[in-house]
Amino acid sequence: MTTGRPTVLILSNDSAFARELASHWPTDGTLPEFTVLEGSLFRDLIGSHYDLAIADAASRKSDSELKQALASAAKPAILIQTEPAAEIARSEFTDTGGTLIELNATLHGEPQSWAVVAGVLGREILRRAHAEACARESELRCAAAQADATLGRYMVEMRHNVNNALTSVLGNAELLTLEPGLPASAIAEADTVRNMALRLHEIFQRFSSIEKELSVAAREADKKAAQARVAGIGT
Fold first, then answer.
1. Predicted pLDDT at 73
2. Per-residue b or e along 2-12, where b marks 16 or more CB atoms closer than 10 Å to that residue's CB
3. Are residues 70 and 100 in contact, defined by beta-carbon separation less than 8 angstroms?
C-alpha cells in the first residue's frame, strides 16, 4: 500500500456508478484518490497501481472474466452485483493473496444503499491494508534492530578476548622497539603496530562504557515503569 493517499480503482462503464460511489464514501478519515477505468478494460488490472478495486458487474456475461482479472491482480476488491443474490459474499483468492467481496446492489431496496455499504467496506479494507503495511514495516525494523543487538552483544562478549590479544600485540610491539640493532624502518613499523593496538584498545573500552550506560538506562526505565504501575494501582 502506498504511504500517501490510497488509490481506489473504479471499474465501470456507467459514469453514474463512479459518481454515486465517490459521493457516498465516508468522510471520517483520509479520502482516497479515485481512478475510473472503463469496465471493458479490466484485463489491464495486472500491473496497475491501486490499493482497492471496486467493480460494477453489470454484465453477467463478463462476470467470470472480471473475477479472474481481479484475482490475478492480487489486490482487495469489491464486486457490485446487480442481480438478486446474497447480500454480501466474501471469497479469498488463495493463490494470489487477494480478497473479493461481492455486494448486491439491490440491498434493502434503497437506491444508493450499495454505494454507502461499499464505501464503508472500502474504507475498512484500506484501513486494514494500511495497518498491515505498518505492521510489516515494524517487523522489518524490529528484525534489523535485533540483528544489530545481536552483533552488539557479541562484540561486548568478545571484548575481553580482544583486549587480551591486543595486550599481547602491544607488548610484543614495545619489545621490538627496544630491540638493539633493529633498522629504523622496522622500529617505525613496530611503533605503528603499537599505536594501532592502543587505538583498538580505546575503541573496545568505549564499548564497555556504552554497555554500562545502556544498563543504567534500562534500570531507570524499569524503575519508572514500576513507579507508573504502582501509581496506576493507587488511583
1. 77
2. eeeebbbbbbb
3. yes
In this prediction, residue 65 carries a pLDDT of 75
φ and ψ at residue 30, rounded to 5 degrees: -75, 120
Residue 112: count of CB within 10 angstroms of its CB? 15
Query: What is the share, in percent, of the chain residues with pLDDT greater than 70?
Result: 80
**For the sheet containing 7-11, what is the strand order?**
33-37, 7-11, 52-57, 77-81, 98-104, 88-93
The CA dihedral of 123, 129, 134, 138, to the nearest 10 degrees, is 150
158-188: string of b/e by CB count within 10 Å (b at 16+)? ebeeebeebeebbeebeebeeeeeeeeeeee
Q: Is there a contact between 42 and 65 (Cβ–Cβ < 8 Å)?
A: yes
- Nearest alpha carbon to residue 80 among 33, 7, 16: 16
Closest C-alpha to 118, from 195, 212, 34: 34
- DSSP bridge partners of 191: none
> Residue 41: what pLDDT?
65
The least confident of 36-40, 42-46, 70-74, 165-169 is 42-46
Buried b (16+ CB within 10 A) or exposed e, 61-82: eebeebbebbbebebbbbbbbe
How many Cα atoms occupy the beta-carbon half-sphere of 67 within 13 Å?
Answer: 15
